[in-house]
Protein 1
Amino acid sequence: MDSSLNQINNRRLYKPEIDQVIGKIFNLEIPLEKFAENLSSPHYWGVFNTIWLLRDVARLMPEEVLPLQHQIFETMVQHASDEGIVRNGISFFENLPIDKNLEDSLFDFCFEKLLNHKSAVAIKAFSMNVCYNIALRYPDLLPELKIVIEDNMDSVGQNSPAIISRGRKMLRLIERHLNK
């Protein structure tokens, strides 16, 4: 593998280093599938850096990362207590068409993060988006999602403008679908 990736398991990479690796993936200098093998690395920083990098790749080249959805989800579940890995993992799914075989499990995982008052604000915000995107295919989930978002705005929102902002946005979108 490329020498710039040798250090991926040893320490947290800085954003410019992540961007450098993304450039090499984008220019096909590093095969994405080979790099994604780091998701099962026994080295914490290897997993952390890889999921962070794949989140950013998903924003630039979504079609390239679609086959990695199950692997990303499995990594999040294995590292469910690690806020950084979970945050980047959930963010990975925000703007992707989610594999139908993964929708139930991913919705449940993200919904649990919304219900858990100890979840980090960013995890909750990303979870709102992912749950909403899945609920669009299953409109019966929208009323329940609405209640949980309102609850988060009432409880966490007092200390987090981000939850209020994201919550309002999600509630507007949910209302549009419920009032069709």
Protein 2
Amino acid sequence: MTTKTKTSSKPKTPVDEANEAAGEALEAMVSAGRDTFETMMKTGMDACVEGYEKAVALGAGQVGNQNAAYEKATTMGKENIETATAVATAMRAGFEAMSHMFVENLKEATAFNVDYFTRLAAAKSPQDFAAIQMEAATKTVDRAVADSVAFNKIAAETFSNTVTPMKARLDRMVNAVIRPAA
């Protein structure tokens, strides 16, 4: 006699077949969902890594740009300070020259006035008195003209020495900032 392993020989009902079909469909859906989820996670991670790498590269580029801009601003600030120093030095030199001229003018005027009044006191006739006054008037006008020319020369030199560094700085700024932007 042959021994047969008994298997469920029970015939499948439509419910069993439907359950089995539903289970297979569910397994297929879970498998497809798992595959979709894994693909979605991999794509998301890849996109995240790519975005991070781009952000790092962009950030590094921005840092480089900021460093260059900072260096340019620092250089411009240093040049501005050097220009301001040159202008202040030129103005100080002009002020010193004017002050020196005022002091010398005051000394000369004092000496002239002492001499003038001494000579007037020593005048013996109206003709001497008139001659001394005429000479004093001529010398006063001549000195005023000469002093005016000297003061104007100092003022013009001071102005030129003050404006020259500012003009040079402005020209450099126009070449560095405005022309490249145009």
Protein 3
Amino acid sequence: MSESTFAFPLGLFILYYAWQHRWIHMMIAAFFMYFADKRIATLAVIACAFMMIFMKLAKYSKKWVKALWGMVTAAGCLYIYSICSGLFEWFCIRLGIDTSHRLDVYPQIAAQIPDNYFLGKGLGTVNEMLPQILEPGLIDWFENPHNDLLKIFVELGGIGLVIFLLSYLAVFKIAEKRITQR
């Protein structure tokens, strides 16, 4: 297990300590998260921090919770579209972003989508296809596609992706209920 494994839990601690106004604890968690060197965890913490601020400013209105869920859902759908259309690849190449071989893998995984848009190809098919897609030296390092939305869309289709995104609505509603109880 590497230090990057703890990046997401440390991000949750940062948010929790910020919410509780325990600034020293928050700074300690941020210090260790910085050394985990996980860009996606850092972006997730920043996004969640903006969401917390957004919800405080919105005075916990139900309209804002639904709007926030709509923005998250739209962002997820746009992300999948950008991969399927080649926009993601163009953007990464144009800005010189190191994607750690994701540009080699994502288009090949996305090419499987047209086979069954609605129901997908079945659970586990993405992990089964990775050894065929990757160069022999990368399969040990790249054991999953590092993109849950793309994986869910290929394996479970549009119906499965909609159900997955609806689960986020449930999480937002639970969070709203908990926050408004305070």
